[in-house]
């Protein structure tokens, strides 16, 4: 197996504690969509997060149409995506924080200079950049090496589609065996698995009663080589991937 040269980080709730903030902001729009389509069900932010963690808003709307049996026209998707993005970015620019311990690990990785660091997210590029900017992470990631399934691809998509990982590897000139992905969600981890990238799972942001379940999902279902609860474990996780 080739040596690991490249680390591909998910952003939301992997680098930045953003998912809860984002889902609070978009629950209102999701409920508007459901009401408009005559569906007597309403989401809270946490309930929306539980059902659709790891998906961008376009992917979430597709999942809503399938779950509740209604349709949206293409132009409706576009309008709602634009509205949601504005709400979320405004919230993130005020409140986003880095995941505990991640800044120290990024600093070490940059100082070592051994690995190429990139971000591979489902979220819109402007949202990812807002999160990175707010938590002062920009020094670790070049602007053209932050990839978005919603913005970077010819046709927008969302994890678990592996397209954004495949696209990122093509742009970076690396093969799956040279990379490791770091993901916190089933959809993100599944995307990495489908792209044949070795995986490190992360369960730090989950509530205590969810952590063991997600640990099992990431390890047994998605094939994570190591699942970490805190970023302090990252050196051990990376060593486990390299040993494997």
TrEMBL record:
Any single GO BP term: DNA repair
Species in which this protein is naturally found: Trichodelitschia bisporula
Matching PANTHER family: PHOSPHOGLYCOLATE PHOSPHATASE (PTHR43434:SF1)
Name listed for the protein in its UniProt record: HAD-like protein
Any one GO MF annotation of this record: phosphoglycolate phosphatase activity
């Amino acid at each position: 197996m080739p040596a690991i040269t490249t680390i591909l980080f998910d952003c939301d709730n992997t680098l930045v504690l953003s998912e809860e903030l984002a889902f609070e902001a978009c629950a209102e729009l999701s409920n508007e969509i459901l009401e408009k389509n005559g569906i007597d069900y309403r989401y809270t932010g946490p309930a929306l997060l539980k059902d659709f963690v790891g998906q961008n808003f376009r992917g979430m709307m597709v999942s809503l149409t399938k779950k509740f049996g209604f349709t949206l026209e293409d132009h409706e998707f576009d309008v709602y995506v634009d509205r949601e993005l504005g709400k979320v970015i405004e919230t993130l620019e005020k409140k986003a924080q880095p995941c505990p311990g991640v800044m120290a690990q990024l600093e070490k990785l940059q100082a070592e200079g051994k690995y190429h660091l990139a971000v591979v997210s489902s979220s819109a590029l402007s949202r990812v950049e807002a999160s990175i900017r707010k938590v002062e992470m920009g020094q670790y990631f070049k602007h053209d090496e932050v990839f978005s399934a919603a913005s970077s691809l010819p046709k927008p998509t969302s994890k678990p589609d592996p397209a954004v990982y495949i696209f990122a590897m093509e742009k970076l000139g690396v093969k799956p065996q040279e990379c490791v992905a770091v993901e916190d969600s089933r959809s993100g981890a599944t995307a990495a698995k489908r792209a044949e990238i070795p995986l490190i799972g992360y369960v730090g942001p989950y509530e205590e009663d969810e952590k063991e379940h997600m640990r099992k999902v990431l390890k047994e279902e998605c094939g994570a080589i190591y699942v970490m609860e805190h970023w302090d474990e990252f050196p051990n996780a990376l060593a486990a991937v390299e040993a494997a």
